[in-house]
């Protein structure tokens, strides 16, 4: 017997209660084609012998609060053997087509099929299957031939997804009478060293690129290309630009190579919507007879780091100097890129002098033998006599070396850690500071042949930022971020960034990348990490880094009125955190319900008007909004490094009951401990006086009689000792200038369609004073739109 025949012959008392309830509801409410007309038709049928008294008893059910005359009638005729087919015939006789729709044979069909995809571990991933059926549809997900626990809804959610969740999935949809299956889908999950949150973007992206290889004849060749995206990516390998037949897997393997396998390989990845080419990998196959020399060269090319650590500082909110915008975006984007290269990254915004010194001390603790160390700084700065100085946000006006951090002194301390690579990326002005008459001569650096400086601009020049809407990029970062992931020697990579910048017409003649390097080995930021066998130093380094990146766990808070809210946390930087609140459950009688955060620590200087916003952008967070859950209230906490105690605040719930105009409230005190960088207490005093990053006021280095004993030698140049003295500097085809003419802009000059920019006359550019000038303005809005 078919499903349809089985359904039609079914006694109506065996139908699902949901069907009977819906039919009863329709007939109870209908006047001309309601239950009384149905009862009249049934009474004329000899099979059911329906009396007037029984019809009257059914009508009395209308007096009960939850009674139904129709339901009583259906139960009565069901007891006398009425089938679904017979009831449908009665309904057709009275013209009740609406009720008949619920008595159709059950059918089921998958309307929305799940899609195959490739994702990174740590994200939240959903497989969706939607089926239409009558009367109700049940779901059950399977991984191969095993049921997925709790996989009994239309969406199968992994949060967070793990590598072991990879596999083939199918969804069975069924009801009491029928069933169907969705299409099989493949879910590929790849390990990620990044901290991934939220739903994947689903855009096609190559996660792991093929690498250059040098092999001996007979060696095994293995090239790997891993892409993520939705739908599932497909692969096609090429050699020397020609497609390789049947090579459509993510791994290209040759068990025993010959000279014929030499060439340049790449992989084309597509998912039907997008296409992306991998980087090109050169495969070199040499004869075994080249013996020792070749093998030695090969082994020396296999460079690696014992770990990778980066400190990123972006100073914007200066107390006494021009405010900047680009450092926030630059630090955020560089953080994401470096994490893809397996760097442990500490990213900090707006640090005082004390906080910068202590942050550098913590950075030095993470360094060890063979570790790649990278320091990036974006903010105000200057350069005197070859020494570069980073300016804290609390630097006075004017500032001197005693108020700033000397980069070369930090390099000296990094060398003492026997690091494998020291990279400095300085996105700051390199004008001379007239107000600083101190000549610092640090101790001689060791010849380590592993130092790389990437300056955003040339000596004596400024660096610029580009503003677009609420976001801004420094010129340097605009071009650096496009190449940073390339598998090239770091100096080669920076050379190509310099070439890219040189083609930018907007800054031609004003800003050019400068590279200084002693790097001899072919070291790249993409070099693999080979950890030592759990050395105490490595364990301590990992623990220290982990401490600076611990977020409070999300929590569910239940109030006495029955409302439940979720409190979540997200890191924008190592010292900037987003708190979001969302009401997850509330009784039906409660209306106008809102949960907000109050009583934040005074040390964070949080404006109450800027808290509990409907969008992250309203709090000033433009960078992580796409990764945060929607329909929440958001509060952004910056300068977490200033916390001296645990982060405490109050969650205040305001609500009303239906029919009552009074506004009620409940409050709960929350203590989440010390989040992120606040655990390291970098707000406290200098903790390692003997390892200072540069001299501080009143130290032996700044007292002439003790200068010899300090870690730096300090000389005062009498040419600059008198602030009233005129400097006569000759420039070809320029007039001589005096100190009266010598004011200029500080490190960044904003180039934006929305604002005007101050530039100095040619004569005024000859003096280097890190103070802002507003003598002349040129509108570069139209230029920006044309050139960038």
UniProtKB/TrEMBL annotation:
CDD domains: Death_MALT1, Ig
Highest rank taxon of the organism: Eukaryota
Caspase family p20 domain residues: 306-384
GO molecular function, a single term: cysteine-type endopeptidase activity
InterPro entries: Caspase-like_dom_sf, Caspase-related_regulators, DEATH-like_dom_sf, Ig-like_dom, Ig-like_dom_sf, Ig-like_fold, Ig_sub, Ig_sub2
GO biological process entries: B cell activation; innate immune response; positive regulation of canonical NF-kappaB signal transduction; proteolysis; T cell receptor signaling pathway
Entry-linked Pfam families: Ig_2, Ig_3, MALT1_Ig, Peptidase_C14
SUPFAM superfamilies: Caspase-like, DEATH domain, Immunoglobulin
Domain spans labelled Ig-like: 106-182, 200-280
Protein name, as recorded: Mucosa-associated lymphoid tissue lymphoma translocation 1 isoform X2
Species, as recorded: Pelobates cultripes (Western spadefoot toad)
């Amino acid at each position: 017997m078919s499903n349809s025949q089985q359904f039609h012959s079914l006694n109506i008392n065996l139908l699902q209660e949901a069907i009977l309830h819906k039919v009863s509801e329709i007939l109870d409410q209908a006047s001309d084609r309601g239950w009384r007309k149905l009862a009249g038709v049934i009474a004329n049928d000899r099979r059911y012998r329906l009396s007037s008294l029984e019809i009257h008893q059914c009508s009395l059910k209308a007096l009960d609060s939850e009674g139904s005359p129709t339901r009583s009638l259906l139960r009565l005729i069901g007891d006398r053997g009425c089938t679904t087919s017979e009831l449908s015939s009665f309904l057709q006789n009275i013209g009740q087509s609406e009720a008949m729709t619920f008595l159709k044979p059950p059918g089921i069909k998958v309307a929305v099929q799940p899609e195959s995809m490739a994702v990174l571990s740590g994200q939240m991933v959903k497989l969706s299957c939607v089926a239409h059926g009558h009367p109700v549809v049940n779901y059950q997900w399977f991984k191969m031939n095993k049921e997925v626990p709790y996989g009994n809804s239309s969406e199968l959610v992994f949060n967070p997804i793990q590598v072991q969740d990879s596999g083939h999935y199918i969804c069975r949809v069924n009801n009491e009478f029928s069933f169907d299956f969705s299409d099989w889908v493949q879910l590929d999950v790849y390990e990620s060293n990044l901290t991934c949150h939220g739903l994947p973007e689903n855009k096609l992206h190559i996660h792991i690129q093929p690498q250059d290889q040098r092999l001996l004849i007979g060696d095994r060749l293995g090239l790997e290309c891993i892409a993520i995206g939705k739908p599932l990516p497909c692969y096609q390998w090429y050699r020397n630009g020609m497609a390789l037949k049947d090579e459509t897997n993510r791994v290209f393997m040759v068990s025993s190579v010959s000279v014929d396998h030499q060439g340049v390989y790449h992989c084309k990845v597509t998912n039907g919507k997008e296409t992306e080419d991998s980087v090109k990998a050169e495969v070199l196959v040499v004869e075994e007879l080249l013996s020792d020399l070749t093998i030695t060269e090969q082994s020396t090319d296999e460079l690696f780091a014992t770990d990778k650590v980066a400190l990123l500082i972006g100073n914007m909110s200066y107390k006494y100097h021009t405010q900047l915008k680009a450092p926030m975006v630059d630090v955020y984007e560089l953080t994401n890129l470096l994490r893809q290269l397996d760097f442990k990254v500490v990213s900090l915004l707006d640090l005082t002098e004390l906080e910068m010194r202590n942050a550098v001390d913590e950075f030095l603790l993470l360094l060890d033998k063979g570790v790649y160390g990278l320091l990036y700084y974006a903010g105000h700065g200057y350069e005197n006599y070859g020494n570069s100085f980073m300016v804290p946000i609390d630097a006075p006006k004017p500032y001197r070396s005693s108020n700033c951090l000397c980069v070369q002194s930090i390099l000296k301390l990094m060398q003492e850690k026997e690091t494998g690579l020291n990279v400095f990326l300085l996105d700051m002005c390199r004008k001379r500071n007239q107000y600083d008459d101190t000549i610092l001569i640090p101790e001689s650096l060791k010849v380590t042949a592993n130092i790389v400086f990437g300056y955003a601009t040339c000596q004596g020049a400024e660096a610029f930022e580009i503003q677009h809407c609420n976001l801004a990029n420094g010129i340097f970062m605009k071009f650096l971020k496009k190449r940073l992931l390339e598998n090239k020697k770091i100096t080669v990579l920076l050379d190509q960034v310099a070439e890219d910048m040189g083609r930018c017409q907007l800054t031609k003649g004003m800003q050019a990348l400068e590279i200084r390097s002693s790097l001899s080995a072919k070291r790249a930021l993409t070099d693999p990490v080979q950890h030592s066998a759990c050395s105490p130093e490595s364990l301590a380094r990992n623990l220290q880094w982990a401490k600076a990146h611990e977020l409070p766990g999300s929590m569910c808070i239940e109030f006495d009125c029955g409302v439940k809210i979720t409190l979540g946390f997200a890191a924008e930087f190592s010292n900037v955190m987003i708190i979001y609140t969302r009401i997850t459950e509330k009784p039906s009688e409660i209306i106008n319900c809102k949960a907000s955060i109050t009583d934040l620590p005074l040390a964070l200087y949080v404006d109450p008007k800027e808290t509990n916003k409907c969008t992250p952008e309203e709090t000033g967070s433009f960078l992580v909004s796409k990764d945060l859950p929607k329909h929440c209230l958001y509060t952004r906490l910056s300068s977490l490094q200033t916390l001296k105690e645990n982060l405490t605040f109050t969650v205040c719930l305001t609500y009303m009951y239906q029919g009552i105009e009074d506004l009620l409230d409940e409050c709960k005190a929350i203590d989440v401990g010390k989040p992120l960088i606040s655990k390291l207490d970098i707000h406290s005093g200098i903790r390692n006086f003997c390892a200072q990053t540069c001299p501080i006021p009143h130290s032996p280095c700044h007292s002439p009689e003790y200068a010899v004993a300090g870690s730096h030698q300090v000389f005062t140049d009498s040419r600059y000792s008198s602030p009233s003295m005129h400097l006569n500097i000759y420039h070809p085809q320029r007039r001589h200038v005096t100190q009266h003419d010598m004011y200029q802009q500080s490190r960044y000059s904003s180039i934006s369609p929305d604002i005007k920019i101050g530039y100095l006359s040619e004569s005024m550019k000859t003096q280097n004073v890190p103070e802002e000038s507003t003598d002349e303005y040129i509108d570069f809005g139209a230029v920006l739109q044309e050139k960038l």
